[in-house]
Amino acid sequence: MARIEEAVQIRYPVDKVFAYTTDAKKWPKWQSFITSAEKTSRGRMGVGATFRGTNRLMGLGMKWTARVTEYQPNQKWAKSITSGGMLIQEHVAYTPSETGTGFTIAYEMKAGGPLRPFLPLVASSMRKQARKSLAKLKAILEARA
Q: What is the distance between the alpha carbons of residues 50 and 117, in angstroms, rounded to a whole number?
């Protein structure tokens, strides 16, 4: 298993950061490795909501599906992502501050079968992409402030 955690401080209200980052249509705009994403379940966002999309990581396109496993508006949310032989648990936390919002994203990744030996390489690439994505998210949202 590999774990990645990155954080950024965003000068933007927590409710607006939460709304932007839980909208699947916005994920390709700020997450550099997501090329497409859509909510596939009906109804409101919450535990049990499902998604699908594609990633581009290390030059390879991969399809994925996800299910929300935790959801507390303006505080945190989590989803379980399946992509090929990989299982990724994504956890996102929001911390209000005097200057805006602390945004933390963490990934716990497990790989099976032929992907297992490549997990350290995938984790390293995802760490770089996560840092890039958080910088982009910060720039997008602070430009709106």
A: 29
